[in-house]
Amino acid sequence: MTPDFIVVIPARYASTRLPGKPLKDIAGKPMIEWVYRQARRSGAREVIIATDDERIAAVGRSFKAQVELTSMAHASGTDRIAELAGRFGWPEQQIVVNVQGDEPLIAPGSIAQTAHVLAGNPEAAIATLMTPIHDDAQFHDPNFAKVVTDRHGWALYFSRAPIPWPRDGRSDLAQRHIGLYAYRAGSLQTIAATPPCAIEETERLEQLRALWLGLRIIVAQSLEPASPHVDTEEDLIMVRRYLQDHPKLL
Question: Which of 17, 21, 108, 172 has minimal Cβ neighbours within 10 Å of its Cβ?
Answer without folding.
Answer: 172
